[in-house]
Amino acid sequence: MTVEGHKIALPKEQMTQGLALALLLLLMGLAIAGPSGLLAWGENSQLLDQRNAQIAALSEERDALKNRVDLLHPDHADPDLVGEELRRNLNVVHPDEVVMTLPKSDG
Length: 107
Known about the structure:
Blueprint: H1 11-33, H2 38-71, H3 79-90
């Protein structure tokens, strides 16, 4: 017994306590910096916000394309959009239209 009333630890007990302490420190390190630890939560939250922004942008683009497809439906096509597509894809114009070509700029 020591002066304070505690037993003097045997080497085997010291090794067991050391291993337990090392295990606890390892678990604490994983809880902070592990793949599902506190630091990863912040990164995952930021990544989730980025993905939600991408989803919103893609949904908006999808809705615009769906609207365009609906306007080009063969049963009830929008005449203005059909004319625009014909001019762009087939390079055709009405007889009363004037075509002005612009020089290509390098800048």
